[in-house]
Amino acid sequence: MSKIGLITDSINFPSIPLMKLSAYHKLLGDTVEMVTNFFEQYDKVYVSKVFNLPHIQDIQYIPQADEVQYGGSGYAINVENGKEVYKKELDKPLPIEIENQYPDYDLYGIKDVAYGFLTRGCPNNCDFCIVAKKEGLCSKKVADLNNFWRGQKQIKLLDPNILACKDREDLIKQLINSKAEIDYTQGLDARLIDDDIAKLVAQTNIKMIHFAFDLMKNEERILNGLKTFAKYYTKDNRHKRVYILTNFDTTLQEDYYRVKKVTELGYSPYVMIYQKGTHPKFLQDLQRWSNNMFLFRSTSFEDYVPRKDGKSCKELYKGII
Questions:
Q1: Residue 89: inside a domain, yes or no?
Q2: Of the chain's two ends, which shows fewer C-beta atoms within 10 Å, N or C?
Q3: C-alpha of 125 from chain center
Q4: 265 phi and psi, to 5 degrees?
C-alpha cells in the first residue's frame, strides 16, 4: 500500500483529474490525500497545473516523495506576445483506465454536486482559447451522464461546446431525465440555438446557464440565438448569463455595447478580462458592476460610483458610454 499526495493550483474549483486519480489509487488500496504539509513523506505525488499566466502564482513547493508526476494544461501553456500558446506535446492525458474512473468526490468533501464532461472539443478554434488545440476541432461525446453522476442534486457541466456535438439531443435528454439542477458553466454557442434546441435545453432543470458573446463578427447570429432561447426559457436574468470577453480584440465602446445588448434581451452580462493586468480601469469598473448581481440589479452602470471621489461612470467615461 502506497501513500499518495495530490497538489493543484486550482483553488476555487475541484480538480477532476485529481478526483479520478484518487479513485484509482483507492481501488488499489493506497491512501490518498491532498498535500497540506510539505514536510510529509509520500511514495508518489501528482502535481496538476491548470494555469500558466503571469497573475497566477506557480506551484513552488513539492513535498518529499519517491516519485513526482506532473500534468495538466498549465505545463503546456506559455504566454507569448500577450497570448496563450498551447504545446500539445507537453500536455499528457490521463491513462484510459484512470480517465474512466468515477470521480472521488470525497477528496473535496463534495456531497451533492457532480462535475464532468459529456463532450470534448470545439470547432471554433478561437485564438483566446486552447480547447480546440487541446481536444480537437470536433465536439465529440466522451461520456454518458452516469460516468460522473449518481443521483446528486446538482450537475456542473463543463463541456466547451456541447451544442456542436452530433449527439447533443441524446445528451441533453440525459440531463432532462436526471431531474438534477444543471449548471451550464461554460458559454454555450448561441449561434447553434434554433427553436428545437432552445425548447430541449429549456426542459432541463436549469440552475444557471451561460452563453458567450466574444466577437463582434458573430453579433447577428449570437443575438438571434439569445432571442430564440429567451422565448422558451423565461426565468429572470439571475439564471441566464452571457460571458463578455474583453481586452482581446474589441474596443471599449464595443464592450459596453455588448453588455447593454444582452441586458436588453433579459440576460445578465458577465465580463471576462483577457490577460488581466493589461486592461484599462474602465473594464475593471464594468466587470465589478456587471459581475456583482447586487450592483447590477440595483443601479445602472451609468449611475454606478466605483470610487470614493463620488463620480459616476457616466462622468468618468464620457467618450465611451
A1: yes
A2: N
A3: 16
A4: -90, 5
Half-sphere exposure of 254 (CA within 13 A, CB side): 15
Q: What is the C-alpha R_g of the chain? A: 21
CA 216, CA 267: separation in Å to the nearest integer? 18
Q: How far apart are CA 178 and CA 144, in angstroms?
A: 12
Per DSSP bridges, beta strands 64-71 and 41-48 are parallel
Q: How far apart are the first and last CA of the chain?
A: 63
Any domain includes 100: yes
Q: Per-residue confidence of the chain (321 residues) as pLDDT tens digits?
A: 999 999 998 888 999 999 999 999 999 999 999 998 888 899 999 999 887 654 445 566 677 889 988 888 877 777 666 666 777 777 888 999 999 999 999 999 999 999 999 999 999 999 888 898 889 999 999 999 999 999 999 999 999 999 999 999 999 999 999 999 999 999 999 999 999 999 999 999 999 999 999 999 999 999 999 999 999 998 888 899 999 999 999 999 999 999 999 999 999 999 999 988 899 999 999 999 999 999 999 999 999 999 999 999 999 999 999
Instruction: Please report whether residue 172 resides in a domain.
Output: no
Indicate the number of domains in the chain: 1
Contact 94, 129 (CB under 8 A): no
**What CA–CA distance (Å, rounded) separates 135 from 48?**
18
Contact 305, 311 (CB under 8 A): yes
In a domain, 180, yes or no: no
Amino acid at 173: K
Beta carbons of 154 and 114 less than 8 angstroms apart? yes
* Cell numbers that stand for 233 in this block: 426559457
